[in-house]
Amino acid sequence: MSAADEQMQQVRSKATELLLREEWGDSIQLYSQLIDLCEAQISNTHQHPNPDPLHLSKLNKSLCVAFSNRAEARSKLQDFTRALQDCDRALRIEPTHFKTLFCKGKILLSLNRYFNALDCFKAALFDPQGNGNLDIVNGYLEKCKKLEFQSRTGSFDLSDWVLNGFKGKHPELAEYVGPVVVKRSEISGRGLFATKNLDAGTLLLVTKAIAIERGILGGQDSAENAQLVMWKNFIDKVKEAVTKCQRTQLLINMLSTGEDEMELEVPDMSIFRPEIEGNGSSNGHKLDMDKILSILDVNSLVEEAVSAKVLGKNSDFYGVGLWMLASFINHSCNPNARRLHVGDYVMVHASRDVKAGEEITFMYFDTLSPFEKRAEMSMSWGFNCKCSRCKFEGAAVCSKQELREIEIGLEKGVDVGGAVYRLEEGMKRWAVRGKGKGYLRTSYWPAYAEVYGSDRSIKRWSRRIPAMEVVVDSVVEVVGSEEGVLKVVVEGLKKRGGGSGGGGVVEFERAMKLGRGIYGKVIKKQAMKTLLEIGIQDQSY
Ligand SMILES: C[S@@+](CC[C@H](N)C(=O)[O-])C[C@H]1O[C@@H](n2cnc3c(N)ncnc32)[C@H](O)[C@@H]1O
Fold first, then answer.
1. Distance from the CA of 449 to the center of ligand 1, in angstroms?
2. In what order do the strands lie in the sheet with 359-362?
3. Which of 185, 192, 202, 199 is nearest to 387 (CA)?
4. Helix/strand/coil for 382
5. Which of these, 149, 186, 346, 203, lies nearest to 194 by C-alpha position?
6. Which residue from 111, 194, 179 is spatially nearest to 147, judged by alpha carbons?
C-alpha cells in the first residue's frame, strides 16, 4: 500500500468512527480531508501514462462514499443546501448509489419537495441495496405520495387527532398554497387576497415555520424572563436558518420591516412553492442583523394553543415562530381568516365566507375589545390599524363619550345587563345599523357573553336586550368564528340539554358552523359533531 493510500485509510476510519459516534461537525472536517486526498490521488492517477482502471474505480468509489457520508453529517446539522450539493457530487460518480439517494430523498422530504423526494426513493429501489431495505424505502415512498397529494390538492384531515384530544404526535402535514395571491393592499403594503369565492372553513395555506421556539412560562416574573430567553433563542435559530439556506435568506429579505411598506416589492407566488429549487448556498452573503431583527419584530407570530383552550385547559404554553406566506397577511379587527398551529406548521383557513378578490386578514391581537383598547394593542404592534372597523369606530364621534361611560361602568363592575341595554338603546339613538351595530356589539362582546352566561342576568334583561342568537350572528359577521362566541353558544345548548339529536337543532347547526369557522374543513363533519357533543357534556368547558 502506498503512503497516500495509507493516509487515506487512516482518515477514512477516523471519519467513519466520528460519524458512528454522531460527532457531525468533526466528521465533516475529516470527510472534507478525505475528499481532498481522494481528488488529489485521482488527478495524479489520471496523469499516469497507463492508469490502473481498478485503482481508479476504487478511488472513485471512496470519493462517492465520502461525499455521501459528508452529506449525511451535514443533513444532521440541517445544513441542507450543502448536503444536497454533496449528494449531487456523489451521484455524479455513482448515479444509483443507494445511501446517497436515500439521504437525498430524506433531505428533499424535510424541505417539503415531495415530488423530487419521490424520484429519489424510486431510484433507490433500483440499487441492489434498495431491495435489502424494501420496507423502509416503501415506507418513505408512501409518505412522499401522501404529502405530494396533500400539497397539490389541499386535502388534509385532522379529525382523528383532534378527537383524540390533540394527544400524541400531530399528523404529518405537507406545505400547501391554496386559492390566494399576494397583491398590494389598501390596508398597508402587501396583503394576501382570495382568488375565488370561498366558504367558511376553506383551507388557504399550510406553511412550515422557518424557525420556532417553545417553552412553558412560569409565574409573572419568571414568565417575563423565560419569554426574553426564548426570544433570544428564537433569533439565534432564525440566524442559523438564514445562514444555512439561501432560499430562506431570500424569502426573509422580502418581508416587511414595518417601514415604507408601499415601496415593497410584490413577490411572485412561485417563490412560496417548496418544489422550486433554491439556488445554492448562502455562503459569502453578509447578514444584515438589524434588518432581520426588525423583520422578526413585525412578522413573528405567537402560537395560539386553540386546542388547549377549546378543551378547557389553560396552559402556560408559549411558542413564537416565523411562517413565511402567513407573514403577508395583514391584521384586521374585521378579519375573515384564522390560523391553527399544528406542530411546526401554521394552517390558515377562512373563518367566514369570503368573496373572490377580498383581502384575507386575521387578527394579531384580541379584537373582542373596544376601539381604544384595540388602538393601544395595535400601537404596541407598531402600527395604527387602518381596518374598516377601526375607521368606523374612530369616526363615530357622537357616541364616543357615552361609550366611554359604558366602559368605565363595566370596569367599575356595574350590572353588565344594564351596560348592554344602554349600548343597544344608544345604537338606536345614534342610528347605528347593520355592520356598524355588529362592530359595536363585537367591541363589547365580553359584556354580552356575561349576560347570556348568567341565569340571573338573563331573567332580568332578556326582554330588553336582543336574543343571544341575534348578537352571535352579528358578531360572527364581524370577526368570523371565535372560540369565546362558540363557548356561549355551547353553554346555551348545555342548558337546553341539546345535542345534535336534542331540542336545539338550529342552535346545534349554528355551533357546527362556528366550529367549522374555528377549525376549518380539516376537521370532518362527524368529528366536529362529536367534538361539540363532548363540549356540551363536559362540565369544565
Ligand atoms: C406581517 S406584516 C403584514 C404584511 C405587510 N403589509 C407587508 O407588506 O409585508 C405586518 C405589518 O403590516 C402592516 N399592517 C398589518 N395590518 C395592518 C393594519 N390593520 N393597519 C395598518 N397596518 C397594518 C404593519 O406595518 C405591520 O407591521
1. 30
2. 180-184, 190-194, 359-362, 330-331
3. 185
4. coil
5. 203
6. 111
Question: Could you tell me whether strands 180-184 and 345-350 are parallel, antiparallel, or unpaired per DSSP bridges?
Answer: unpaired
Round the CA-based radius of gyration of the chain to a whole number and report it. Answer: 29
168 conformational bin, left if phi > 0, alpha if psi -120 to 50, beta if neither: left
Tell me the CATH architecture of domain 3-153. Answer: Alpha Horseshoe (1.25)
Phi first, then psi: give them for residue 464, nearest 5 degrees. Answer: -105, -10
Task: Give, for ligand 1, the residue of 260, 264, 331 to mutate: max count of ligand atoms closer than 8 Å to Cβ.
Answer: 331
CATH 2.170.270.10 residue spans of the chain: 166-362
Mean pLDDT of 323-330: 97
Q: Among 13, 40, 41, which residue's Cα sits nearest to residue 27?
A: 13
Crossing angle for the helix pair 445-453 and 483-495, to the nearest 10 degrees: 20
| Coil/strand/helix, residue 154 | coil
188 lines ligand 1 (CB under 6 A): yes
Which ipTM score applies to this complex? Answer: 0.99
Pairing verdict, β 330-331 and 359-362: parallel
Q: Report whether residue 261 contacts ligand 1, using a CB cutoff of 6 Å.
A: yes
Distance (Å, whole) CA 260 – CA 77: 37
d(CA 519, CA 311): 13
The answer, yes or no, to whether any atom of ligand 1 lies below 6 A from the CB of 374, is: no
Contacts of 15 (CB under 8 A, 6+ apart): 27, 30, 31, 33, 34, 66, 69
One-letter-per-residue 3-state SS of 39-73: HHHHHHHHHCCCCCHHHHHHHHHHHHHHHHHHHHH
SS3 category, 25: helix
Q: For residue 349, list its beta bridge partners.
A: 203, 338
The Cα–Cα gap between 473 and 352 comes to 11
Among 77, 344, 347, smallest CA distance to 213 is for 344
* CA distance linking residue 403 with residue 407, whole number of Å: 6
Look at residue 159 and tell me whether its pLDDT is greater than 60.
Answer: yes
Helix (H, G, I), strand (E, B) or coil at 106: helix
Q: For 351-378, how does the pLDDT look when each residue is reduced to its tens digit (9 = 90+)? A: 999 999 999 999 999 999 999 999 999 9
At residue 502, does pLDDT exceed 80?
no
What CATH number is given for 166-362 in this structure? 2.170.270.10
Residue in the block written with cell 441492489? 128
- Tell me how far the alpha carbon of residue 139 lies from the centroid of ligand 1, in angstroms: 43
What are the cell numbers at 304? 395560539
Q: What is the pLDDT of residues 200-244, one digit of tens each?
A: 999 999 999 999 998 877 766 677 788 889 999 999 999 999 988
| Single pTM value for the model | 0.88
Residue range(s) in the chain whose domain bears CATH number 1.25.40.10: 3-153
